[in-house]
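1st attempt posting a full record on here, be nice pls
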Amino acid sequence: MNIPMFPYTQEREMSDADVKDIAAYLNGIELDTQMPTYTGKEDALTKLLMAEKVMIIPRAEGDLEAGGKIYQKQCASCHAKSGRGRGMFPMLVGQYTNYLKRQVDLYRAGDRAHDEEAVGGVLNTLDEKQIQDVLAYLTSIQDPKE
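the predicted structure (as tokens):
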């Protein structure tokens, strides 16, 4: 739960339909993951504005090969091979590593308010190094168009 956003998600503030509309709008935003190609005719402000539309997720430390194997075997069936999510399983690619790590830790501790009680599953079978390797792998496949 994001405490600063909590008041804005309450029914008295926004209807369920409004929340769904906002979520759909945000989900539809696609940012490039590669820096733009400049023609040489752009001024400095134009270049800055073009660069601001690029989603840059810093690479996380970890064993990419090991993380890729774990991800494809344990996570891809729900979150998709590309990490873009599927159904009720959220997109992981393009999320900041610190955010994902916090969510993993909260999930493993059973402290996420919207999760069922008695949380189990794949994340509880992985050790810290394996999780870090998966997070590193996710930062290596961040191009959503792949």
